[in-house]
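#structure-requests
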Amino acid sequence: MDTVTSPLEIQQKWDVVVIGSGIGGLVTATQLALKGAKVLVLEKYMIPGGSGGSFRRNGYTFDVGASMIFGFGENGYTNLLTRALAAVGERCDTIPDPAQLFYHLPEQLDIIVDRDYETFLSTLIARFPHEERGIRRFYDVCWSVFNCLDSMPLLSIEDPVYLAKVFFKAPLACLGLARWLPANVGDVARRYIQDPELLRFIDIECFCWSVMPADRTPMINAGMVFSDRHAGGINYPRGGVGIIAEKLVKGLRKHGGQIIYKQRVRKILLDGNNAIGVELASGKVIHSKKVVSNATRWNTFGAENEGSSLISSEHVPPSEHVWRKNYVPSSSFLSLHLGVSSEVVQAGSHCHHLLLETWEDMTREQGVVFVSIPTLLDSSLAPSGNHIVHAFTPSSMNSWKGLSPSEYLEKKKHDSDCLLDRLEKIFPGIQAGITHREVGTPRSHRRFLGRFDGSYGPIPGIRLPGLLRMPFNTTGIKNLFCVGDSCFPGQGLNAVAFSGFACGHKIGAQLGINAWELPD
């Protein structure tokens, strides 16, 4: 992959400068370049993708984050990764995963979420036969939310002209979607389900991708995830998750945009309350009509316990202070990137697993263990005779602060050894079969991904009404936009792709370069 750092001539004036090359930032950049805008992406690291990137070690291609990818379907409007790539003439070859997830839960509640909807329901009903009606009604409601989303082009809901056109195209879907905007999953689930264990399963169904229990997970998001896994399905990009960002970069350059690596933005330049460009760590100034931050909102506007930010404290808009009261950083992760002998992974194993020994540990430090084995789908990611096992568990930055170098290394080894012991419950003998081992901590995520406290993203600090309080792309500073998991609709590659489409559309409307027609 081309990782040119700085030989490209930086023009004196750009239409748009994007800070960071996460998927949200790259979708914004490609959408605007496609429409004719002069776009520059500045990336502090050597490769694109951020949390959706990949790195290579000793013949292994490891995904930085999870490999459970939504958004690669072929039909409807929710297949946003497929659409983002196709817009710039690119495509990922994908491999369908026969199941979303294998849950290993307390009281031997082992549930496989099959790609086929009826097979999944039958599995769940077999465990909870007395809740058959409630199970079907709850997951059918999720389908109704998904069908509303899938029947309309997903662009900026901040643009009134666009909203009017979408309402004219699909009025019933718009009204149906509005109904669920203030709802959370827990409230909806309890309308139909009474069994406490089944309600806990709905909690972990939400936690596996939102890192929140059902009471704090928006129904809009659940409708997408719980249904798209059976509609478009989980599809793994051949070559690793990082190939998505690489192809978006290729499409960006194809349409006249530029990306430069190893370029850390020190601050966003303001003229009064108007963003006019950025200043690099080198001192170089780049001017632009619009600035897009693909950093987290804490990195963009600062936080109470971190002095450095792209915007100085005296210019932070009041709306951002309100946002900080509503949302807090989710936990980061302790990650194990393993190469293991293929004999360790039993024949017929599923790619994705979730392990939880006791329900009380679900939201606690290192409570839930997530496992991805992408080589079960794409064997080219590892040397012959080996598999990749990526295991990760939530871990707060607070648990890793104030440690001396020796204490840090000791904790890193101790915690990763404990994680390995737990993996033995799913894959007996895994420790004896390790051929490569790397450990990432919240400090690693902060250092290499530039994320505040290494966080996975924002979660509600208090119980909020669905997605109604989630911020959009515009900010309180004119011509400054945010994109990524700090914006509506939140975390996940498909979600940040939506954020990128929305941001590109909003800026395009202001620049007067959007097409009048809605997307096909």
